[in-house]
Structures are given as structure tokens and as C-alpha cells.
Amino acid sequence: MQITTDKATIERVLDRGMLDTVLPSRDFLISELSSGRRLRIYIGFDPTGTALHLGHAQNLMFLEDLRKLGHEVIILFGDFTARIGDPDKSSARQQLTKEQVLEYASGWVNQVRPLLNFDDTENPPVIQYNSEWLEKLSFADVIQLASHFTVQQMIERDMFQKRIQSGAPVYVHEFMYPLMQGYDSVAMDVDIELCATDQLFNALAGRTLQKKINNKEKHVIALRLVSNPVTGELMSKSRGSGVLLDLSANDMYGALMAQPDEMTEIFFTSCTRMPLDQKETIMDMGPRDAKMFIAKEIVGIFHGKENAEHAEQSFIETFRKGGVPDEMPEIKIDAKKTLGEILVEQKHIPSKSEWKRLIDGGAVSIHDGEKISDASFVPTESCVIKIGKRMFIKILG
RNA sequence: GCCGUGGUGGCGGAGUGGUCAAUCGCAUCUGACUGUAAAUCAGACGUCUUCGGGCUACGCAGGUUCAAAUCCUGCCCACGGCACCA
After folding, report:
1. In total, how many domains does chain A have?
2. Which nucleotides of strand B lie under 7 Å from a protein CB?
3. I need a surface site. Which of A61, A232, A316, A323 has the fewest CB within 10 A?
4. DSSP secondary structure string, A270-333?
């Protein structure tokens, strides 16, 4: 595998617009990347939920860029660290079971796949799990690791300061988290850690340890978090504002379109690899069309061009023209049961009360037909039922 | 070990005997407006219902009362502070 030493190419990768911080320095990093030496670069994710989102995708795409330069890249799933939980701003995170974490991780592997070229036989990306080494550490090892840091260094961390000031608890095990993540760097003996800015503290712990234990300089590349430039809001699953990577083509397209307009440009930069000089042309298409363009582009990365095209057509058909999507859940007519009962049974609606609320709110209608205002409505012939803005159910007679 | 505070709906957080299925904020859902946007406005937001009302819920278990999230007893859990530290 040829290592790219051309500085202009390297700078093009670094300067796409996601970079936030480089430690110890950008110049040093460039000189390392262009030295012709094959570097080992890693990024870590803790599988704490079912799906990655577009913010993670940004980081992985950046990692792929570095891989294409010829360097060895590792995607580390923190199956061990996920169980302890990275300290949160306000509280200690809940600890997960091993089974739970492994289940999440297996899903994440699939979501990562489209973003890097795993078919590259010369320089394929590598996936690792940190339980492999963290599980083996003895108490003595841990104490040895801990001796490299002071309590002052730990509580200096912003989130701990805030908690201490507000009288909220800071648990001892939370200090272990940076140690663990730091030890990952040592165990894999990496040259560079790629992360988002929220991971800087942990990444720096790895820098410290790598220097003290392996006597090696570890570079940290921190990418900015994908956030709304107007409100500053992060993509977040809990607020339902994220675009999750396990969505179907149609849903992902829809989720992208539902993002505020001001996100379009950021998505262009962070989550596509279209040349930067096309940005202006695309943004000039107008807010809606630019967003559609980007949405199709991103869906294409995960589901292929053809499916992306499909998703766009389906979107236009369904939402702009008021049609119905080409695929939807189907249910069979049962003369003994009301529509509401069937939908609750099949988990399309959580409860009968909810069904009644939807009816009262005027959310349920027969496609191309009138609203259903009777909660005990029993379908008698094949039709399509629309519930809310985007739930369509095909009724089969 | 001692002292103190507190455990309420997805979250934050009111409520301190009745009008409490529980103020309010966030999140969510629906409607209007639209570009499935966003912003805004309106409504909903335990569950079952023959739409009268049931039932289950304010850490757990008992009790007092016509009536308890609210009072009493016991228990469990959490946090803060103090003390102890060969």
C-alpha cells in the first residue's frame, strides 16, 4: 500500500471543514502524515444504544479519508467502556450489561460498513473491541495506570467542576473512564486518535499514557460536533433530532428533510464527499432543493444510488403530492374487530386511548377520502388508511 | 457511626389531607400554516370503557381517616455534611 506523502493531498483531507483541534499541533501532524511512515489511527465508539447517527458518520468518513492516504485505521468498539459509561454532564451514566452492549455493537458494525471500504484487500479497516485488553487488567495494573494522573487533573474537568459546585455526586469509577480510554491507545499502540471534541479529555489521557508507557507521541485529531449552527443543538436521539444510521432509505431521506435548513451546508461538508467547490452551486438551488440534493446523496452512501433515487421519488409522491408511499404495513380486515383494535394488537398504535385521541384530533383518514371520526370504525373494503403525517396502513379486504 | 435532605408521570420539577390522573417546563403526538420543513399558533399527552364511569399509579409494606401523593409506623434506596481512620 502506497503511503501518500503529498502535502497538498493531506491538507485537502484535513481542511474539508470538520477539524476542530489538533494536538500537539497541526504542523507536527502534517509532517507525520507525510513522512511516508504508515501510521496507526483509531477512533472509538461506545455501543450504548441501538444506532449510530450522522455525527458518527462524519467521523468515520474522515477516518476513511485517512485510510485512503495509506494509513492503518482501527474502529474500536468500546464494549468494555460502554459498560462503565462515560461520565455525563449532569450525572453518572447507567451501566449496561455485557449482553446488551454486544448486541448494540453487532448492529453498529453493520452501520459502519458502508462508510469505509472493507473490501480493500491491501489496507482494510480493522474492527477491535476493548474488552480484549481491558478485561485482563488486574487491580494492580489499574492502580499503576491511575498513578500517572492526579486527582487535580481529573476534577479539573469541566463537567466534574459543575457537579461538585452543584452538590451532585461524582463517583470514583468515573475517574476510571479516561484511564480506560487512555489505555486503549497504549494497548493498540496508536499514533493518532480521531475523536469528536467531546472526547478531548479522554483522548488526552491516552496521549499522556502513550507517552509515559510507550514513550511515543500520540496525535489527537478532534472533529467538531455536528450541531445546528443557529441553535447550537446537537443531533440527539433523545430529542429525536438525529438521523440514525439504521434507518431505511425512505425513513433516512425523510429524517434528513426534517432537519432544519441551516443544517444542509453542514451535512454537505461533513457527511458527503462531494468536492467543496460544488457547495455554492448546490446551496444556490434554494433551501428545499439543496436539502433534497444532500439528502439523496447521503442516503445513497448507505443504501446505494438507486434506493436513494427511489426514496426521493417516494418522498415527493407522498408528501409533496399527497400520494402514498410504495411500501407500507398491511393488515387484513376482520369483521369482528374495529380498526383501532387491530392496530393496537399489531403494535402500530400503543393503546386504545391513543387511538381515540388520534381520532379526536382528526389524524386518521382514508386516503383520498374522508376523515374517520368514529373510533369504532370497522373497515369493510380494501383501502389505505393515513394516520398523522406519515403513517400509512394498507387494509386488505 | 452521627446529623441532615430527599425518593412524584419519558425527563426536570410543583403539590404537604378532599375540586389530584396530579400546576408548570422540556421531550413526544395531532391539527393549522408549509417545503413531511424550521419558526409560530391551537389541542392532546396512564389505561379500559356500553362514554355514565371503572381500574392502576406519587420508593416498598402496613396503618389512621368518610377521604391520603399529602398524616402515622416500619422498611428499602439515594444524596450532602460531619466524625472515625492502627
Report:
1. 3
2. 27-31, 35-38, 43-49, 51, 78-80
3. A232
4. HH----GGGHHHHHTT-HHHHHHHHHHHHHHHHH-HHHHHHHHHHHIIIIIS----S---EEE-
